[in-house]
Amino acid sequence: MMGALPSGACGVRILGTGSAVPERRLTNADFARMMDTSDEWIKQRTGISERRVLDLRTEGCSTLAQRALERALVAAGIKATELDFVIVATVTMEMTCPSVACRIAGAIGATNAAAFDLGAACSGFVYALNTAEAMIRAGRARTIAVLGAEAMSSIIDYTDRSVSILFGDAAGCAIIQAVPDSTKGCIYQHMGADGSGWHALYIPRRQSDVPAEDADNPIRLGSLRMNGKEVFRFAVTKFKEVIEDAFKKTNLTPADVSQVICHQSNIRIIDSAREKLNIDPSKIYVNIDRYGNSSAGSVPLCLDELWRDGKITPGKPFMMVAFGGGLTWASSVWNT
After folding, report:
1. Same domain, yes or no, for 210 and 178?
2. Rounded to an integer, what distance in angstroms lies between the CA atom of residue 252 and that of residue 245?
3. 174 and 256 share a domain?
């Protein structure tokens, strides 16, 4: 599974990143032709203009995940056989067995890697990255590919306006590796969950999965259901709390970080946290207008675009924060 392990204390660096989105665009104008809505209505409530969706007849979550991983390997300058683990955060795998991670590791020839999927919804990539970084620091691995990948279009009921307008498909990958400098890598992380709120955002497979208060929901089984008002209240409060906690525990201020990479859930949620914490808009990256909410694919997609554009400044910390179904939330502050 792995070569010689790092001896003693070590740090972790990001070797390279990659991402992938489908070619097909689903615009607000497309939705206006499908249902009672408009471009203005969607933009005002979400900040979304378009999202990318797969051709599910021939593609799926593993399609995007493999592309993102292959691009990250090229950017990192390493071979697939050098990977010790492949971890994929997703809730839209084509099959629960085998995992997306196993499928893509096999497809690219990562013959030395253990592989597994991790499910924490929109928080998934940050959960997975925190887990992988801790494994390297503990000396259990040297090089790990961490992905967030979602085919959200596979679990959306496109006859429903409340949920369908929000989501798109995307994948992103970060390859991390042990380095001798123990100051490099994650300097603070937090992961949390409140399972009592699971019914606010869930994917029921059977009628018995549906709570009594949601029994009349018209969204078909197997599709994502969301209590928008409840999720919005949770997100606005939790986003602010998680970012504040990360700044407090690291003794950093918004001026000290190069970027705060937020899960792209809703522009109103992002703007609310930014304004309450007085963070410069240039430090809060936004691409939800182009891709919508891609769940676990959201944060790594942002990370890859920022990394390739040189917005993650060497020697300056950056922060990743997310919240999602479960209900879950997570943060990860990195020193590059």
Report:
1. no
2. 10
3. no
d(CA 150, CA 64): 8
Q: Is residue 254 assigned to a domain?
A: yes
The CA distance from 30 to 35, in Å, is 9
Q: For the segment 165-177, what is each residue's pLDDT rounded down to a tens digit?
A: 999 999 999 999 9
Beta-carbon-side half-sphere exposure of residue 307 (alpha carbons within 13 Å)? 22
The tally of domains found in the chain comes to 2
Q: Is residue 52 classed as helix, strand or coil in its secondary structure?
A: strand
How many angstroms separate the CA atoms of 226 and 202, rounded?
Answer: 7
- Which residues form the catalytic set? 122, 263, 293
Q: pLDDT tens digit string along 179-216?
A: 999 999 999 999 999 999 999 999 999 999 999 999 99
Task: Quickly list H helices, 181-222.
Answer: none
pLDDT per residue over 244-274, tens digit each? 999 999 999 999 999 999 999 999 999 998 9
